[in-house]
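Person: Please work through this fold.
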Amino acid sequence: MPGPDPPDTHISVLYVDDDLEYAQMAKGFLTTEDDGLSIRLATRVDEAVTCFGDIHIDCVLTDYEMPDRTGFDLLHEIRARDPMLPVILYTGRGSEAVASEAIERGVTGYLQKTTNTSHYTLLANRIRTLVDRYRATKRARTAHQRLEHVVEHSPLGIIEWTDGGSTNALQVARVNDTATTLLDSDDADLRGASWDDLTTSPNNTHPAATALPGDPPDAPTSDTPQSDTSPSNRIIREHTEVIGTDGDPIICAFHHRVTPDAHDDTSTIVSMFHDVTDSVTKLQRLEETSTLFTTLFETLPVGVLAEDSDRNVLAVNNQLLELFTAPGTPESMVGADCEHLAEQVAPQFTDPAGFIAGITECVTNRTPVDRTELDLRDGRTVERSYRPTELPGGDGHLWIYRDVTTEQTRAAQLQQERDQLDAFASIVGHDLRNPLAVAKGNAELLGDTCDDPALEAIDRALDRMDALIENLLLLAREGSLTGVHEPVTLADVSAACWDTIVTAEATLRLDTDRTIWADPMRAKQLLENLFSNAIRHGGDAVTVTVGDLSDGFYVEDDGVGIPADAREQVFDAGHSTATGGTGFGLSIVAQVADAHGWHVHLTESDHGGARFEFTGVT
């Protein structure tokens, strides 16, 4: 097998001549002229052919006429192996006809033997010149083949463009397999296509068109693709939407290179690109999310401070600066030392050392802390909450400060009101019910010994007083308060309430499958009062319906209804249109609805009765 290519200074020559004595002489002269020549001798064509399997050969020097075969026969054998290998026909019996035929057959050089030894200088120079050219061509071809392999197997789409006849009419000259895949087109379909054919924007000129010779590039603007220019080429980078698989648009990152030819005004334009749709979409979503978070961060009704692992400010909002009357802006605070900032703020607290110690404990333990109350010297109270965070660069810290002074003042007021109501309920429950119990007991004793019809009126009056006291206690003790909210199936709780009241021949119709979020006991109070009110005003045969609204539910009946001019007053405590009514039933309904954050609206049902609609129900 032939060995590897020798260094460029060494040239391996195969000299084929049937005159061995002459060949040896010529070898001596040639190696004297150029000591870089290494010459192998052969006297027959067949012998020469076998040498190609044994040694590396850079050039063949051959005689024309030989006993077995001619130099042209050897040329044929060589060209079958290497179409470019230098072959010099070196003969002493040549003629113009032989020289002409040699050139036609593809010999690289022709030289006739002479008795003048000076021609060996010419022959040695000719050999080195032809071999140098052969080697350069071979290297270029190898590089080209490697480049072709890289292009065809590149993960990037590659398009070579050609001038279609005018400066701006570039057309596809060649594409690789990746480009055909990205553009969902065959090679044949893409050849000759314009930039406008590939992109989704109409009348879109190829960005490199303005970089062709004769058209200096325009001054860059914020809307033009990013470009780099140099004396030898221009590179243009951009994101462009092209037509992809199934005709759907995809976003590709393009890298256009314009390389002018050094010998004329032509240029080579190559575009390399890849699909960046996913990354661009993710970046857009990230930017949208970042904008949303920034807006939320800036508009939160609490002060927020985010720290990095070195306890430097990552972000802070205006609310925090205003809370502690700190100078500067959120932007100017970024990077500030949070320990130093805490020391500056600490004197505003009634316990500065405790304020600092609490921060140190949170940072050391990295345990979430909620709503630690801190008193300020100016009389305000703030709550501090802490959350450890994980950042790309290490641990982080998130602090939330909230002014709760107004809330605490309101809570104290509500507690005072509740204490007053509890005192009132105690008076009603003890000081009124005890005399009422005595009166009812004595009335029963009189009934055993006296048959006066007035006793029935007294008994009804005492029962009404008992009902009034019960409702007053309910309003005083519960009012607009609710217990724990939980899922309540409206149909089930309605049926349970219906079973606890005296309904006579009245009918309950359930037209609901809604589950509401409510205090079960207070929801029962609301429904029982509505059902009792419907039976009291609509009669024993009334039909009551519970049904769904888009954001709530309704309770209606087919009774006599409530006049339009009286609908505003029915929710007032003590207002009643029925004989013997306490006037608190619908007031309790309104308070239960308000305690849940519901809105109640009284209107007329399709059958002329009362319809109570509850909206804002979750």
User: Anything to note?
Assistant: The longest strand covers residues 249-260.
